[in-house]
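hey so u asked for the seq, here:
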Amino acid sequence: MKILIIEDELKTASYLMKGLGEEGFSVDHAVDGDEGLALALERDYDLLVLDVMLPGRDGWSLLGELRSRGLKTLTLLLTARDALEDRVKGLDLGADAYLVKPFAFSELTATIRSLLRRGPQRSAPAVIELGGLVIDTLKHTAHRNGTRLELTPKEFALLLLLARRKGEILSRTLISEQVWNIHFDSGSNSVDVHIRRLRAKVDDPWDMKLIRTIRGMGYTLEDSK
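ran it, structure tokens below
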């Protein structure tokens, strides 16, 4: 799932991006309210993690603008402001949860998973099934024909990207941007290496292969039956 962190404290943002990336989420970062608003309107996110005190447009203004435009993306306010009136204001503006700094990372991830489980705004299915492959997007687990696949967080993120866009040919550039949040280096074989490792777990033990290479174009996940 894709998360946008809107946070001007770079140390906090780096901590969140590293931790959530290790949990298997795809994470983008905006350093101020104006950039955050532009990204939230331009791209499709499952969740926004929004600081209140931001340079330029603050979190209150940003959230109000998003809701006034009809954007219902799940939003977690993350702030040092813990007064009751601040909590009420955030919820009245349309926040789905409010977490006060400092916080435990386990509390943050538990709050995020709770939001994603109950969020009616999510259009993506919680469970994706294809050719005996079953992916639970909330539990971050994958099974093939009843056998659990032991995937690293990046392998899971890669598999989830392919599964969510099954049948589409995904270029190495797109995969690099979505899974690693970096621009593709034509001299790197990182994507190919991860695809090979993923195939060893998802396809090699079974006759039916789901991950296909489209020469000169990229990769796709599809049921070949």
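Helices lie at 10-22, 33-42, 59-68, 84-93, 105-118, 153-164, 172-180, 190-202. The mean pLDDT is 85.
lmk if thats what u needed
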